[in-house]
Specification:
The protein has three helices and three strands; from the N terminus they run E-E-H-H-E-H. It is mainly α and about 120 residues long. The chain has a domain of about 80 residues. It has a three-stranded antiparallel sheet with strand order 1-2-3, with no helix packed on it. Strand 1 and strand 2 form a beta hairpin. Helix 1 packs antiparallel against helix 2. The protein starts with a strand and ends in a 12-residue tail after the last helix.
Length: about 120
């Protein structure tokens, strides 16, 4: 069955992990932990890459950062495919509201309508 959309939820049918949950980790638990770890790592590597002053270190860090982002994306795709990760679709009104909110933030920029040199 392809993606189901029910009350704004976008997800695949779950392949299931059993209804009774014991103390042992199942595949879903492990993938949740892997994804959480990858998110943590990408956050740290983002900061490290931004602040690495040595060019070669920066390049290596960017390579590792990209690989870590790709691993997180692959994990997310697998979880979504198995029905273990769901999304909530945005309404047109919520998208418009968010766009207006960020448009209003532009008035707070200190150098509006000036070219940066």
């Amino acid at each position: 069955m392809p993606n189901q959309q029910n009350l704004g939820m976008i997800k695949n049918p779950s392949v299931g992990t059993g209804n009774v949950k014991g103390p042992q980790l199942n595949d879903r638990d492990i993938l949740n932990d892997v994804l959480a770890t990858q998110k943590y790592l990408t956050d740290g590597f983002n900061i490290f890459a931004r602040e690495a002053s040595y060019e070669r270190l920066h390049g290596v860090t960017m390579s590792v950062l990209n690989e870590t982002h790709q691993a997180a994306r692959d994990t997310y795709n697998l979880m979504f495919k198995k029905g273990w990760y769901k999304l909530t679709s945005a309404t047109r009104d919520s998208v418009d509201q968010t766009q207006q909110q960020f448009t209003n933030y532009q008035s707070q920029f200190p150098y509006q309508n000036q070219e940066l040199h």
